[in-house]
Amino acid sequence: MESASETIRRIFGNKGNSLGSEMAEVSSRYDALNSVRFPKPKETRYIAVANQKGGVGKTTTTVNLAAALALAKQRVLVIDMDPQGNASTALGVKHNSGELSVYDVLEGRKSIEEVKRVSSSFKTMDVVPSSIDLSGAELEVADLGNRNDLLREALEKFVGSSKLHYDYVIIDCPPSLGLLVINAMCAVNEVLIPIQAEYYALEGLGQLIQTIGLVQEHYNPALLVSTMLVTMFDKRTLLSKEVFDQVSEHYPDIVLQTTIPRSVKISEAPSFGKTVIEYDPRGMGAVSYREAALEIARRSPQVLKTIQDRKQRSK
Ligand SMILES: Nc1ncnc2c1ncn2[C@@H]1O[C@H](COP(=O)(O)OP(=O)(O)OP(=O)(O)O)[C@@H](O)[C@H]1O
Ligand SMILES: [Mg+2]
């Protein structure tokens, strides 16, 4: 039987219809993704999605990569470290004030085991929700000697005792460089930086890299900026291409070749408590996030080796 992409190609293909050929292209990328196996990383990959700049796509990237990986049979734990709770919303998890959340974990009242929820959409995805109460945590734990290590300690305890093996732990960070972000960076081995394809994209990146440098120096020497992902890419504009080229020039081994297009479906999905992977599975947004996830998965051997080497060297 003719596949959907073949039908689209038959109807629109080679007729100079740009919408038609774009649909055919996305459709064949969708088919290709469905026939590919995602390699499982040998060890858990711990990734913080961070950029102190607001609205660059951190949360969108966290939830959609997590969904793409879960769809590809990877076991994923998402931790929402932003008091805004946008990742919890997008994953359809309640996060009202007073609800058990990562706030209780940081303050030592509850374990991750006790607060995590199984995602209603993906059996292999668990979510540690945030809550607005988390905005008080920075002050409340400020005097603790281990204030930067609260998440790391809780995560180590959880992973050490859990019956489940996670392939990926992905943490959504708030747009700041405060205690919550430092906790996230101390709990992971990798930072993924989403970069919005816009004029000021690289401004502020220096400050972020500097903060990561401080975390490496004082707390977590093996921490690696493993991945950059250009988001809200508009292929009709020269500017988007320029941003991608600039990031590629500065960080050739880090930036993913996949970019995430600006798409209305991506921005609509959270209002339905869904990721775009479920909301518009055949669209450009879902396909791009799945391709980005595949690129990340395929880089696992190299990334894990680099982290291992850094851990050895810092001993
Ligand atoms: N590829 C995209 N296409 C269209 N809209 C997008 C895309 N990615 C993100 N958005 C929208 O842009 C806004 C900001 O995205 P998002 O919340 O993921 O950024 P953020 O970096 O997590 O923001 P914050 O700094 O507030 O945590 C949201 O309304 C989101 O739906
Ligand atoms: Mg966010």
CATH C-level category of the largest domain: Alpha Beta
Low-confidence stretches: none
Beta strand count: 7
The kinds of small molecule bound in this structure are: adenosine-5'-triphosphate, magnesium ion
In round numbers, the mean pLDDT is: 93
The number of helices is: 15
Indicate the proportion of strand residues. Answer: 5-15%
Report helical residue fraction: 40-55%
Query: What CATH architecture label of the largest domain applies?
Result: 3-Layer(aba) Sandwich
CATH homologous superfamily grouping of the largest domain: P-loop containing nucleotide triphosphate hydrolases
Strand order of the largest sheet: 3-4-2-5-1-6-7
Q: SS-based structural class?
A: alpha/beta
| Intertermini distance | 59 Å
CATH topology of the largest domain: Rossmann fold
The helix/strand series, from N terminus to C terminus, equals HHEHEHHHEEHHEHEHEHHHHH
Features:
315 residues; alpha/beta; Rossmann fold; 2 domains; 7-stranded mixed β-sheet; 15 helices; 46% helix; 11% strand; globular; binds adenosine-5'-triphosphate; binds magnesium ion
Characterization of the model:
- 46% of the residues lie in helices and 11% in strands.
- By secondary structure, the protein is of the alpha/beta class.
- It has a seven-stranded mixed sheet with strand order 3-4-2-5-1-6-7, with helices on both faces.
- β3 and β4 (125-128) form a beta hairpin.
- α1 (4-12) packs antiparallel against α2 (18-34), α2 packs across α14 (284-298) and α8 (150-161) runs parallel beside α9 (179-187).
- The longest helix has 17 residues, at 18-34.
- The N and C termini lie far apart (59 Å).
- 46% of the residues are buried.
- The structure holds adenosine-5'-triphosphate and magnesium ion (MG).
